[in-house]
Amino acid sequence: MTTAQAITLLEQFRSGGVGRDAVLRAFQAAPVADLGFAQIDLHRSLRKNFPEVVYGAGKTPAQVALIVARLLKAEGRALVTRVEASHISALRRRFRGVKAHDAARCATLERRPLKKRPGKIVVLCAGTSDMPVAEEAAITADFMGNTVERIYDVGVAGLHRLLSRLDAVQSANVVIAVAGMEGALPSVVAGLISKPVIAVPTDVGYGASFGGTAALLAMLNSCASGLTVVNINNGFGAGYAASQINALAAGELS
Amino acid sequence: MTTAQAITLLEQFRSGGVGRDAVLRAFQAAPVADLGFAQIDLHRSLRKNFPEVVYGAGKTPAQVALIVARLLKAEGRALVTRVEASHISALRRRFRGVKAHDAARCATLERRPLKKRPGKIVVLCAGTSDMPVAEEAAITADFMGNTVERIYDVGVAGLHRLLSRLDAVQSANVVIAVAGMEGALPSVVAGLISKPVIAVPTDVGYGASFGGTAALLAMLNSCASGLTVVNINNGFGAGYAASQINALAAGELS
Amino acid sequence: MTTAQAITLLEQFRSGGVGRDAVLRAFQAAPVADLGFAQIDLHRSLRKNFPEVVYGAGKTPAQVALIVARLLKAEGRALVTRVEASHISALRRRFRGVKAHDAARCATLERRPLKKRPGKIVVLCAGTSDMPVAEEAAITADFMGNTVERIYDVGVAGLHRLLSRLDAVQSANVVIAVAGMEGALPSVVAGLISKPVIAVPTDVGYGASFGGTAALLAMLNSCASGLTVVNINNGFGAGYAASQINALAAGELS
Amino acid sequence: MTTAQAITLLEQFRSGGVGRDAVLRAFQAAPVADLGFAQIDLHRSLRKNFPEVVYGAGKTPAQVALIVARLLKAEGRALVTRVEASHISALRRRFRGVKAHDAARCATLERRPLKKRPGKIVVLCAGTSDMPVAEEAAITADFMGNTVERIYDVGVAGLHRLLSRLDAVQSANVVIAVAGMEGALPSVVAGLISKPVIAVPTDVGYGASFGGTAALLAMLNSCASGLTVVNINNGFGAGYAASQINALAAGELS
Amino acid sequence: MTTAQAITLLEQFRSGGVGRDAVLRAFQAAPVADLGFAQIDLHRSLRKNFPEVVYGAGKTPAQVALIVARLLKAEGRALVTRVEASHISALRRRFRGVKAHDAARCATLERRPLKKRPGKIVVLCAGTSDMPVAEEAAITADFMGNTVERIYDVGVAGLHRLLSRLDAVQSANVVIAVAGMEGALPSVVAGLISKPVIAVPTDVGYGASFGGTAALLAMLNSCASGLTVVNINNGFGAGYAASQINALAAGELS
Amino acid sequence: MTTAQAITLLEQFRSGGVGRDAVLRAFQAAPVADLGFAQIDLHRSLRKNFPEVVYGAGKTPAQVALIVARLLKAEGRALVTRVEASHISALRRRFRGVKAHDAARCATLERRPLKKRPGKIVVLCAGTSDMPVAEEAAITADFMGNTVERIYDVGVAGLHRLLSRLDAVQSANVVIAVAGMEGALPSVVAGLISKPVIAVPTDVGYGASFGGTAALLAMLNSCASGLTVVNINNGFGAGYAASQINALAAGELS
Amino acid sequence: MTTAQAITLLEQFRSGGVGRDAVLRAFQAAPVADLGFAQIDLHRSLRKNFPEVVYGAGKTPAQVALIVARLLKAEGRALVTRVEASHISALRRRFRGVKAHDAARCATLERRPLKKRPGKIVVLCAGTSDMPVAEEAAITADFMGNTVERIYDVGVAGLHRLLSRLDAVQSANVVIAVAGMEGALPSVVAGLISKPVIAVPTDVGYGASFGGTAALLAMLNSCASGLTVVNINNGFGAGYAASQINALAAGELS
Amino acid sequence: MTTAQAITLLEQFRSGGVGRDAVLRAFQAAPVADLGFAQIDLHRSLRKNFPEVVYGAGKTPAQVALIVARLLKAEGRALVTRVEASHISALRRRFRGVKAHDAARCATLERRPLKKRPGKIVVLCAGTSDMPVAEEAAITADFMGNTVERIYDVGVAGLHRLLSRLDAVQSANVVIAVAGMEGALPSVVAGLISKPVIAVPTDVGYGASFGGTAALLAMLNSCASGLTVVNINNGFGAGYAASQINALAAGELS
After folding, report:
1. Do H32 and F164 touch (CB under 8 A)?
2. Is A133 left (phi over 0), alpha (psi -120 to 50) or beta?
3. If both were cysteines, with which of A221, C235, D176, G194 could H47 make a disulfide (CB 3.0 to 4.6 Å apart)?
4. Spatial distance between the Cα atoms of B15 and B3, rounded to a whole number of angstroms
5. What gap in Å lies between CA G236 and CA G123, rounded to an integer?
6. Dihedral of CA H8/H11/H13/H15: which sign?
7. Mode of pairing for the β-strands spanning E106-110 and E99-101
8. Are E and B touching by the rule of 3+ CB pairs within 8 Å?
9. Residues of G at the F interface (Cβ-Cβ below 8 Å)?
10. Chain D residues within 8 A (CB-CB) of chain F?
């Protein structure tokens, strides 16, 4: 029930069009969805340009296509993460304009693309094997209306590669730093810049990497300030959070 | 070596005032600190209002006092976290105006307090036992020039407490959500608002809480978007990152 | 040996019908099965309507069919969990009336279906990926003679979905709450109702979910009272325990 | 806002006593606490005989006394768990009739004791070292209006001790089985009876017990059906859940 | 160098047949293998009836056949554990009399079978899924010259099954107790008998069984005396150690 | 109830001295302790020379003294492990002849010392810090009637120390090998001898020793055959199991 | 920018050939790569005979071939680790002289082979299953210009095998000791020699080996001095570090 | 038995001074200690300048003094690590010239100080809290005859501090890099230099540092080549290994 609908209802009540019990029931029956959570609804409309995202892993191509159809109808655009070739095929059979981002394991459909907000998000990754996660972050941030700059393969074992790109890194509003193995890149970056750094551990590594746990722990224990961390391989989460911050910096969300 | 100094040196070289080797040595000898890292220096001056913070734990009162003296001289203000009574006493013997924040286990000295920037940071905590960590976050954010609103004891086992404060939570630029035990608060909050949520696990709990690991893992695995996580009990880290984001939202740091 | 049989034996002994050694042997030879464990036998007949269940995983189709044949003969009904297509085929080749519950990965054969006892068991799950485990719980509880209501996809990241179904949840005798990832759903539910909540962690998630460990720990550390937990993915165990409680509430088992 | 208040408001609106905006604001301003969560309030009044419990650990004697005062005023009774001598002293200085349960590390104040409901809860423990946790469970269940029977020191290394008490165990509505070390007791018990068994691991043990983790894992992996588990040392949680189930069996909570 | 060879050498030296340096070199060059470790050689000849065993996993059929050929030549018999069908085929192509023990995943070749020593080894297992590990233990012990009695599917969830076989268990010299899931069987058994019990955890289970870790920890933390533990799934190790103990009991190895 | 008592009862019944119900009650009332578990009783009398042991840790001096009094009356001897000075004092105040084994943290009272059985148990330890655990094993084995030889400080970092004592090690019936840190000693020993080796990990170490976990895992993963393992620091368990094996070798327990 | 280039630039500036801003820009624009990190460049040229290595796992054959082509052009030689058959084929289609080291899972291309430096590196492994990792270490060290001696299958369960090769081990400059399971070999070796020992845990084992964690922890906790450790299965890392040390011993790298 | 003694014995045998059996016994009786391990003895005399070190933790002052007395007599010098004030006092009461290294928690006694070998060992540490471990490494290396340069507080969060000291770091033969928290320093350093880097994790940190595990895992998973790792806080081990390598570089140990 929108505010407009609530006003109409009250006016109908005052004019005798509906009875007292009907008004009461309307307000009581579904307060959460309709009134009690008007804030939520409001807030959901505020973030209309942050459409729901489909996590493809473990879903059949048919299921993914179904959800995308619903999103497209409601939002005009959709992002599907962790897709496989079969998901892409299913989407292409049903929709036009499906963009497959192979490196990111993502697909996007954008009938009404978002205008880019000012401010830049830089996505760093330590090694080429971390690229799928970094790309998932980059595609997500891009899809949500941000200008994204990728600076890849700048791991700490060859520090000069990172340092030579420092200007670009420092000019971002938010930095996403993706790394597996020892996960040192976000700490080094957060020590060099004054903007928020979102650290993404990946499961790149072997042996005592324990599926990315080593990198995750390193990032949580960083001695550098301004670092926050998301789950192992959670490129989407990092891209989403970075976009929220960049939107704040652009004066949105207020 | 500043750009001006570099120009002077080059002119002296051309005019014969200094020899070639001297120029070469000047550029080579300390390139990192003076020229190669001019960016870093610049950036450090940019974040002058983010003074270094003293981690009190494991330091003697004398050591803490010494470091604070240096910071006061350079910055005019200092924040000491994880203080004990003996640290406070030592600071008070040496400095005037030491504020002890008992609940936060922090002390602050502010000869030149920062002006509050616009935008609000809300600090939530799940239970009263999580308060020391929440207060550390709140004091840090406050100290760094932010308006902070505390909403405590709003754990998910009594959801109405949180929901009844939803307006206040939604009006923040950034939310810090502190919780031990099952660590569910940040997920619930991030599902209700569209702003960045920084999750802080605490070691409150017993048994299979494993010193806060249960809460940490819950937060890293949140199904809500826009959540990033800091180390267990790291209230300072959350306050610092929230302040960075709020400064971005205020148009600073650009 | 029942009490009646024991009395008969003693009377035969006194009347000389059996000798002393025969009596002694009867009491000594198999005390566990016959006398010492008469209680156990009694209790097993009490739970006749809780037939043994076949755990299909790791068993060949032939093995499953064999065990089911034995159960059908003894009980007239059987539940097989964690089945694959090959199990279903093998069962169908041998028995009529095999019901395959695909989502639950279960099969049931019920020649003599149980009458539903009063009282309702509600099965909640956080996300659609948790459905197989939730369905295993639901099928188990249904099979054991309970009315089951499913409320799915009500994870805490969209709290309004749960809150809008609160009436239904509160009207249950027992609630089974199934969740992977951060595992917060059971805590939130247990804070909202006064009935027993059985929490089931699932291995849905990735990275630091560690195969469901994050959700398991969250549930064990819940700050909400009245919550008990079963093993990761153990939908059957939750359905079984919920049925026991519902039977108690119906005045059975006493 | 109660239903009565809502009706009054609507009537005032129709009669012109209040304006449309005032009505709208009343329904919108605090929907959660007042209308949207009427269910919650209702439900809280339903569980009035389950008063809030004070977790003493980490609270000062003064804090505990303050919370108890509030509970006594609202409920007429209070249970404090994990108390130390200083908590007891503080309570006794302020209140009359404080009962200290040393073995359980609990204190109770009961001006209006609850009438015992029918049905029995049996609390088992494996070794004498597990007694504090078992007693916490027993005192909690007793305090919540249940008849409790304690059967202690019946660990599986001396199986005859448990078997000789089997009748008593089988006559309970719910069994709480407390064990540290290898944590086998709940599995053995759940195999012998048809009632719900709540397993409580304790941190009794050393070496590879890892603070109760060994017992916890054993209980979660039990091959016996009908077993649910609470956190390590969580005697209160087990007593609370057992009381909920026993109340259901007594026809309450419906 | 045997003692006889050493004497010969010394005599040749005294008679001038070999020089001093040659003697010195003979004693120094290979002291470990030839003289210093005469004890080891002796001891190896003592355990001739404990032939080396081939661990098949990860070896090609050809490699397994090669090693078996060497063992057969030296010992006249061989045991291969963790075999697959391809190993069996390769062995049968090359040797006659290959016995495949499918349940145990073992193969044996015995041209000169060992005479059974007196004394019995009982192998227990908790569930039918633990059988491969139990069979590996049983085949190993049998192959090493012991009379082995198998008592399977006697897990603690149906205690009467174990208790009804207690006589047989108590008549063994050594008991091997194999269990996955909660791993309680060895504790219960060791509480009932006075002979050594060797506990073998298996990886049977799911979720928080963590590949057998739950059972392993339970066994290590057993409150019953006289229990020792081997690695997860290490049926061979248990059979070997049980055979050593049984040989001691038979008066061998002294 | 012994067999003799059972016969007497039956004869009294036949002669009319006791009624039918009394007989029935005698057999039913305590079937476990008296009849159903006659086997257990038998077996317990068989191991009379394996008296129950008091685990001192966490018990008050008064509690320990009480239990010891009961044991002394029943058995004439007692072993208390993990004692502190206060336990010793309390025992000495009450009993004569208390022997304090400081290094082993044990106390023994032996009014009727056991005759030593033939066969030797050797206790090895890797470093001097492992001595308390090794001594607990040695005192236990000695107290249970075994000849014990201690060979200490023979860790693998100085292999010659162990090799020079090889003869003594090989002459044992059972070897207990105690080690912390990397826990390699038992593997090396089991490779050198043909008798059962019981490995005891200790918590000696720091850092990634994780309280003895490193040594425990090393021992469980030993590539040497014939090794079984007990819990970290469980010297008593190793001494007990070794004594059982040595008793078997001496022809006892059959 | 080399020193020579810098001198040229300065001379051109003095002679008017280039302007002041051009000089300034040259020094400022890329200080890291060109001047600030001249040290790094220098150092990279110093280690020219340590060419970059390609980690094959997770790369397509085409990707590997591309990187190898680049390395061959720059260095004239390349080492690819963790190769599969498809990598080898791709390399052979494009390059001549590809050597496949099957056991090591490596490939090498050496148009200009390095001259062997004096000093020997010995690579030990405990079991034949550890060979792939040992071979990776050996091939790496050999490829980097070292004489390598392999001594395999010398695990501690048959100590005489190691002791009989002690002379060879002691004559090395550096020893690489590779072991899975209990990981004891490096400790034993480091106790016997005075040279640096690099320990490599492998994931050989099962059950509580936890993918090599048991061996890793054992090595980290070694009681022998002079032992350092690399990641599980990291044969390349051990070979690289050993080569660095051997080069130091040969008077290189200074 | 030295070679000289062996020769004497053989000559006495040839001249009839001792009989054949006496020679045989001399070679056989203690082959390990006397002949078989002559290599070991030799090697131990080679490393005379690597005296045994006393690990003070857990030893009484009297025990430490006793061992030091023995070492002083044999070696003329001793190093005691992990000392407390009471150890120092006890040493000073008994010996002159005891040097207490407070920061390193070490004491040294050097009657015959070693001459410094050429080549430098650099010890880096990330934060001031890591200093005790770094100092233990530095004192150990210094005591073993190496020139040591300390560069402290150069953690990666302030990279310019490390880079400005790069020349000094690159001029070392071996670098020891000590770090807690995220443990990134050794990776960064190993990427910048071509010499061996020994990484020492410390337990500095809190929360998910898990006592130094985070830093340990980061170091083991380093993407930089040439890095080897020792146990958490094992400064001594790093100093010892670095000294071995530096001795090799100086042409010793060959």
Report:
1. yes
2. alpha
3. G194
4. 18
5. 12
6. negative
7. antiparallel
8. no
9. 126-127, 155-159, 181-184, 187-188, 190-192, 205, 207-210, 213-215, 217-225
10. 129, 160, 163-164, 206-209
Query: Looking at the predicted structure, is the pLDDT value of residue A193 above 70?
Result: yes
CA distance H13 to H31: 18
Whether B177 and B185 have beta carbons less than 8 Å apart is answered as yes
Q: How far apart are the two ends of chain F, measured CA to CA in Å?
A: 23
G208-250 residue pLDDT tens:
999 999 999 999 999 898 899 999 999 999 999 999 999 999 9
In order along its 254 residues, chain H shows pLDDT tens digits of: 445 667 787 888 888 888 877 776 665 433 332 322 223 333 333 333 355 688 888 888 998 998 888 888 877 889 999 999 999 999 999 999 999 999 999 999 987 778 999 999 999 999 889 999 999 999 999 999 999 999 999 998 888 888 888 889 989 999 999 999 999 999 999 988 889 999 999 999 999 999 999 999 999 999 898 899 999 999 999 999 999 999 999 998 75
3-state secondary structure A27-88: HHHCHHHHHHCHHHHHHHHHCCCCCCEEECCCCCHHHHHHHHHHHHHHHCEEEEECCCHHHH
Is the model's pLDDT at D36 over the cut of 70?
A: no
Probe site for chain H from F154, F164, F169 (most H CB atoms < 10 A): F164
Give chain A's length.
254
Chain C contact probe: residue of A231, A232, A240 with most C CBs at under 10 A = A231
Which among H66, H68, H74 has a CA at the least distance from the CA of H54? H68
Give the ipTM: 0.82
Count how many Cα atoms sit within 13 Å of the Cα of residue H95 in the half-sphere of its side chain. 28
Local confidence band at B172 (pLDDT 50, 70, 90 cut-offs): very high
Residue A13 has pLDDT above 50, yes or no: yes
| Cα F106 to Cα F81: distance, rounded to the nearest angstrom | 4
**Residues in Cβ contact with A141 at an 8 Å cutoff, skipping those fewer than 6 apart:** A121, A123, A148, A176, A239, A240, A242, A243, A246
Q: How many C-beta atoms lie closer than 10 Å to residue E90's C-beta?
A: 21
Contact G251 H249 (CB under 8 A): yes
Torsion of CA H157, H158, H161, H166, to 10 degrees: 50
Residues 6 or more apart whose Cβ sits within 8 Å of residue B164: D30, D32, D33
Specify the 3-state DSSP secondary structure of G114.
coil
Residues of D with CB under 8 A from a CB of E: 126-127, 155-159, 181-184, 187-188, 190-192, 205, 207-210, 213-215, 217-225
- Beta strand G106-110 pairing with G77-81: antiparallel
Handedness of CA G141, G142, G144, G147 (dihedral sign): positive
The interaxial angle of helices B3-14 and G3-14, nearest 10 deg, is 70
Which burial class, exposed, middle or buried, applies to H69 when counting CB atoms under 10 A from its CB (0-12, 13-18, 19+)? middle
Measured over the CA atoms of residue B241, residue B244, residue B248 and residue B250, the dihedral's sign is positive
In E, minimum Cα distance to D186 occurs at E157
**Could you read off the pLDDT of C22-55 as tens digits, one per residue?**
776 666 433 333 322 223 333 333 333 355 688 8
Pairing of strands F77-81, G120-125: unpaired
Check if the beta carbon of residue H148 is closer than 8 Å to that of residue H124: no
| Residue H27 contacts residue E6 (beta carbons within 8 Å) | yes
User: Comparing A73-87, B42-56, E224-238, which segment has the lowest mean pLDDT?
Assistant: B42-56
Query: What would the two tokens of residue F214 be?
Result: 């490193």
Check: CB of residue D212 under 8 Å from CB of residue D180: yes
Q: Give the residue carrying structure tokens 């059929």.
A: E61
